[in-house]
Batch of 2 targets.
Target 1
Amino acid sequence: MAYAIRLNSFEGPLDLLLHLIETRKLDIWDIPIAEVTEQYLGYLRQMQELSLEIASEFLVMAARLLEIKSRMLLPRPSKDGEGGEEEADDPRLALARRLVEYQTFKRLAAIFGELERTRERVWTRPPSRASGEFQPPRGPQASPDALAEAFRHVLWRAFAETPAVRVDREELSVEARADQVASLLRRKGGMTFREILGSRRDRAHIVVTLLAVLELMKNRRVRCVQEKVFGEIWIFWRKGGERTEGQSDDGGD
């Protein structure tokens, strides 16, 4: 029957090896196998002195370390090249990969443990046990005629309580607005379209003002200048702009 043995917070041989490497800040890809093996065997001797049962996993790892140590002591023939084949023959490589994989899972376990402790401090409202099926309201059922009568009563009460409001429609004349614009330009000589609009900027006022300016341009009473695209539009009073609409324009400015 498989079971886990914990000795001094070590849950297995890989955990013990990783502890030895991290506490001495060793390179996991370049393990000094002789030093680590001696320290590992020292832990096993302490377990024996304390009359603790040594799990088979620890003994298997000890045998593996001794095997790697003996292979490292054997002379290896030198090989030319960049050393790729020599790295492939390194007996420590398989052990280093297992340690890196174990280290990754150990860190993930610590992260999940912290998330679990954080989640334990949060209380979640249990899901509602109400049935998802529609439950018709209890009580007498109203007829469509009764519902229509109630709606008419609500409308009548709403209109009866709301005071009547009279809205007078403002009559805007293009001719009258053209006379106003002409009067402004005669006094000032030239203005921008924005200045002619003034502070009033409702849609009807803007449209009527634009039509009045176009009417004045048609009758050659004003001229418009725009120095650049999307720039200000300047409107100037023309010389001889006092003539009537029926008169022709034979002369220039």
Target 2
Amino acid sequence: MGGEIEKRGNGHISPFERIKRTNQAGSEFWSSREFAEILRYGDYRNFESVIEKAKLACFNSGHKIEDHFVDVTEMIEIGKGGKRSVSTVLMSRYACYLTIQNADPKKEIVAHGQTYFAIQTRRQELNDERIEEERRLLLRDEIRRHNAQLADVAKDAGVVEPVDYAIFQNHGYMGLYGGLKQEDIHRRKNLKKSQKILDHMGSTELAANLFRATQAEEKLRRDKIQGKAAANRTHHEVGAKVRQTIKELGGTMPENLPTANSIKKIESKHRKELKGGSPD
């Protein structure tokens, strides 16, 4: 397996693309053994030190090493039909990017690889950003719809006046956000008075709030809750249950999730794209 770039038609296929593998879930990964061969490391032991540096860079960047570097045992052929087991690291695209940044810069193939993975990593980042935008738009619309339904059910329970509904909503937030009211969350997220907290939530936080809203709506209706106090208590209990689930799963508490850019900007960009204009 050489370092030459295979030509197809008018384009070029990177040698790193040729050794890319895909698992059943559709995720891309590379074998460190094949990667070392492409980079022309004759002795794999010399390449292991490169991987260790890449793992350290991964840790220092705030990513989990095990999410990008997976140690496995593979069987390789040794001639005359024989095989033996060897230790291999399965690496994500990001892991490959970090690894090649720590490889021998004097090798021409390393320079090519640095360019390839820098471009591909940026493309992946842009794709991930697009997916996150789509999720946020979908979830934000769902919350608008379910908040309207929740308001109707709360009204049936006796939460009629706007001030009472604001208190009712705060009980749900306090359950989910560990006692924080809407104004506390607003302040914690460093938002201006004119900005809505739901418009500045990422998809993970939006999903938690959607679950809170849908389950509160369902419980109020199913249990035929009556009275403002009972409705407030129910909403708080549901929010607290969602928070407990997040904790049990090892997730980040919603108040600690980062503030996202305004979803209004994403909506505006998508409207322009639909009209065939520039997305800015």
